[in-house]
Amino acid sequence: MPGNLGRMSGRERNRMPIIDAYTLIGAWPQAEVDLSVEALAAGMQARSVGHSLVTHTAAIFYNQTVGNDQCIELCSRHAPLHPVAVLNPLDYPQCLREAEKRLGQGVRAFRLCPREHGYPFSGRVGPLRELLRSLEGVKVLFVDLADLPAPVLTSDIDELLPAPTVATVTAAGLGTVLHCANGTPNLWVETSRLEAGGAIEAAVEHLGAPRVVFGSGAPLRSLGSAVMSLQFAELDEAIRTAIFETSLAKAMA
User: Fold this and answer.
1) What is the Cα–Cα distance from 22 to 226, expressed in whole angstroms?
2) Taking all residues of the chain, what is their mean pLDDT, rounded to a whole number?
3) The dihedral sign for the CA sequence 28, 22, 10, 205
4) How far apart are the C-alpha atoms of 63 and 65, rounded to whole Å?
5) pLDDT tens string 122-171
6) Other beta carbons less than 10 A from residue 20's beta carbon
7) Residues of the chain whose pLDDT is less than 50?
8) DSSP SS3 for 186
């Protein structure tokens, strides 16, 4: 993975400490927001974000192979950006070939989009089971469970998770994720949709700081608001630092 997060020097971390687990480039349906690399880079500079994990929206809404190609190419020209390849288990067996291709290219972060692609995050989904078992060598997996009536999440997914699996979830759905996470050590959360007061603190209380990472959803969502939500959360400074920086860096090492 270009610019391996686990190899950042102490000097680099001190200069730009924040690692953003969830950013986007491309275009978002029915949202007139600039999701260009330039817009993302400007926000990162303004908020002292040193590294961002990036998903290309074309891989979500159009074609996983085309979007992932574009993401990897853009990230190769912008060192602070790191590609997160999208996989759709319902696009079977192409998803297996896509996973193999991206792993061969050195990609070590992947995103699943049950909301957009229309499947439960459950071990009962056969193509998902096979896809997860194929991801040998992955460092971190992201799964978007936000804006669902309730997170479609079942505990039988536990034994299938190949690496720390970071859920994007709203405060309304956080309880379901925390309950599942009691018996699923590889289930983490990121902060981009934990906007309600006390939600970040609840995640830390139940999971511990090492299983909570900073995410913004930028530029689709406000990077500044995401940073401030964590800055003003009632947390010890060491915990805040872990969420902003070290938790994800250790996972990617």
Assistant:
1) 11
2) 91
3) positive
4) 6
5) 999 999 999 999 999 999 999 999 987 777 787 788 889 999 999 999 99
6) 31
7) 1-4, 6-16
8) coil
Reading the block at residue 195, the tokens are 């906007």
Query: If you ran DSSP here, which 8-state letter would residue 182 be given?
Result: T
Which CATH number is associated with domain 17-252? 3.20.20.140
Task: Please report, for the chain, how many H helices and E strands are present, in that order.
Answer: 12, 10
Q: Which residues contact 104 (CB under 8 A, 6 or more apart)?
A: none
Cis-peptide, bond into residue 219, ω within 30° of zero: yes
pTM of the model: 0.92
Instruction: Report how far residue 192's alpha carbon sits from residue 168's, in angstroms, rounded to the nearest whole number.
Output: 7
Sort strands 31-35 and 49-56 into parallel, antiparallel or unpaired.
unpaired
Which residue, 142, 136, 7, 6, is CA-closest to 86? Answer: 142
Least Cα distance to 23 among 56, 47, 46 occurs for: 56
The phi and psi torsions of 22 (rounded to 5 degrees) equal -145, 100
Contacts of 28 (CB under 8 A, 6+ apart): 35, 57, 220
